[in-house]
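pinned: reference chain
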Amino acid sequence: MYQPPSRKRTKKAVTTPDLVPIMDGFFIIIFFLLMSATFTKLIEIASDVPIISDSTPPENKDKPLALTIKILPEKIQVLTGVPSALVKEFGKIAEEYDTFQLHEFLVNLKVSNQKEKTVILEPIANIEYEQLVKIMDTVRMLLSTDPAFYKKDKDNIDVRDDALFDNIIFGNIQG
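pinned: its structure tokens
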């Protein structure tokens, strides 16, 4: 026996939500995110990572300088040698690290170690980015009043070295 379908069983037409306003919202959000990303400066410091090797180092008569600079909250310590031995400390002057005295000391150290190019920075303290860059510039750059240092190029010609210690390695990146 045939029964006509009741109103309860008849299917209503499925209505889909209007996605146009949602898509418009996403496009507007993406536009503003892209615009804000162009005005934001990202700052990064490129650095080498110290590598521990299992191979034996080549026999060298000269002991390495192994210059290490520890940046503590109240002072900067300069250490040299393996194992590290404290050579000099530089305090703060008016809430700023004494980079002038540090530079003078490093220039005098460079006079006796002219082939050395590497310095290990260990910022123990949470210091501001500007202070870290100032210390890095102090370690890296030679001033016009500093003595001239010369190195041999591939043709065995003396060329003026324009950097103090230009290979900067961060010692405690995770610390």
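why pinned: Helices lie at 20-38, 99-112, 129-140. The first strand starts at residue 68 and ends at 71.
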